[in-house]
Write a structure and sequence with these properties.
By secondary structure, this protein is of the alpha/beta class. The protein has three domains: 3-133 and 299-335, Rossmann fold, CATH 3.40.50.720; 136-296, 2-Layer Sandwich (Dihydrodipicolinate Reductase, domain 2); 345-429, 2-Layer Sandwich (Alpha-Beta Plaits), CATH 3.30.70.260. 35% of the residues lie in helices and 26% in strands. It is built from 14 helices and 17 strands. Strands 7, 8, 9, 10, 11, 12, 13, 14, 15, 16 and 17 form an eleven-stranded mixed β-sheet that branches. Helix 1 packs across helix 12 (300-319), helix 2 (26-33) packs parallel to helix 12 (300-319) and helix 7 (158-167) crosses helix 8. The chain is elongated and about 80 Å long. The structure holds L-homoserine.
Length: 433
């Protein structure tokens, strides 16, 4: 059996997991790949005397791996934007295939990377960048190749999902975030998790793979979970909904919606049951209908599972000198459609609105009349007399699906009412239809 050589750059959580799984399951993996996958060099920017690499050459210069003529596939696991980009571009220039778990790199620089890779005839694979061990990129790129994919919605940040799950028991946001950091779930900069940036990286990649459009991270809308209170979580539950931090991509007219924000989802929907650090991605295809992909979105060996699946794909092509390549985003580069990301005012959603009102006669009628003037249909409305505080009473409204523009205008008018205190709390809601 032929050997295909891989060089690993980065020996952190995912690098260590990849090394260990490649060794532990070597014969199984070789059987699947039709070749031996040999780790020929490992690099980490810090000395790693604590990690037993056996006889495999180790270097603290990650560029040694991309400059090694024996390396066929570079596995980039250092994370971050700039050095990772330099490393990947250098690998491509040297005619090496690349497997990466770096969602930030692909979401931000992917268009340029694929263009360079195509010119060189090399593969760049990135399954591990999205939803960790869940093979959702492969599912969309290959398993759903017959479909026109209409929308994708996912819980694609484990840290955020862990925080929202724990907050259901009444815990405060900051306290749970600290625990998530101690448990090692969060990114180096946890604002990437809680402000939706990490999820927006992943959603950008999902949308491009699903719809066959160029990567448009800079146009994604991101709203975090740091302002979500146990109060709204409890009231959403009372209305039959659960708050999840979702990434949503949807075709709409001549554009796409691309947005990450807290979202009310029906308690009865499977995605509402996805708790803790787990991830899940719903994909709706015109032929297949709704499909759901669920599992660990992070972790050393779970993410290694996706890295190695990509290595196996690439190794098959290397071992057989095959000119066949699955396109980077599942569509040939020349077939990518120019569907721009729509401004948020043009998206359509249902909305949870919480209003603090003075306890006067007629306030509810004024609020209802503003909603009606803006063409907003109310699905449910609750006024919590029992929660009266300093003469203020919470009014909670769930709307039917409307355009965001209408809701923005209605909120402006409601906030201008003399009987309303402070800002209206607005959380989008989704029924997955
Ligand atoms: N910080 C990420 C998460 C890790 O919490 O999902 C995996 O991308």
């Amino acid at each position: 059996m032929k050997d295909v050589n891989v060089g690993i750059c980065g020996l952190g959580t995912v690098g260590g997991g990849t090394f260990n799984v490649l060794n532990r399951n070597a014969s199984q993996i070789a059987g699947r790949a039709g070749c031996n996958i040999r780790i020929s060099r490992v690099a980490s920017r810090t000395e790693r005397t604590d990690f037993d690499l056996g006889d495999i050459p180790f270097t603290t210069d990650i560029f040694d791996v991309v400059n090694d003529p024996d390396v066929d596939i570079v596995i980039e696991l250092i994370g971050g934007y700039e050095t990772a980009k330099e490393l990947v571009m250098a690998a491509i220039k040297n005619g090496k295939h690349v497997v990466t778990a770096n969602k930030a790199l692909i979401a931000v620089h992917g268009n340029e990377i694929f263009e360079a890779a195509e010119a060189k005839g090399v593969i760049v694979a990135f399954e591990a960048g999205v939803a960790g061990g869940i093979p959702v990129i492969k599912a969309m790129r290959e398993g759903l190749a017959a479909n026109r994919i209409d929308w994708i919605a996912g819980i694609i940040n484990g840290t955020g999902n862990f925080i929202l799950t724990e907050m259901r028991a009444g815990r405060e946001f900051g306290d749970v975030l600290k625990e998530a950091q101690q448990l090692g779930y969060a990114e180096a900069d946890p604002t990437f998790d809680v402000e939706g940036i990490d999820a927006a990286h992943k959603l950008t990649i999902l949308a491009s793979t699903g719809f066959g459009v160029p990567l448009q991270f800079e146009r994604a809308y991101t709203e975090g979970i740091s302002k979500i209170t146990p109060y709204d979580i409890a009231h959403a539950e009372m209305l039959g909904y659960r708050i999840k931090h979702l990434g949503i991509a949807r075709r709409r007219g001549n554009g796409i919606e691309l947005r990450v924000h807290p979202t009310l989802v029906p308690q009865g929907h499977l995605i509402a049951q996805v708790d803790g650090v787990l991830n899940a991605v719903l994909v709706d295809g015109d032929a297949v209908g709704q499909t759901l992909y669920y599992g660990p979105g992070a972790g050393d060996e779970a993410t290694a599972s996706a890295v190695i699946a990509d290595v196996v794909d690439v190794a098959r092509a290397v071992a057989t000198d095959s000119s066949h390549r699955v396109p980077y985003l599942g569509f040939s580069q020349g077939a990518l459609e120019d569907l721009p990301v729509l401004p948020m005012e043009d998206i359509q959603s249902a909305y949870y609105l919480r209003i603090q009102a003075e306890d006067h006669p007629g306030v509810l009628a004024k609020v209802a009349s503003i909603l009606s003037e803006h063409g907003i249909n109310i699905e449910s409305i609750v006024q919590k007399e029992s929660e009266l505080e300093d003469g203020k009473i919470p009014v909670i409204i769930l709307t039917h699906t409307v355009q965001e523009r209408q809701v923005n205008r209605a909120i402006e008018d409601i906030e201008a009412l003399a009987d309303i205190v402070g800002q209206v709390v607005r959380i989008r809601a989704e029924n997955f239809s």
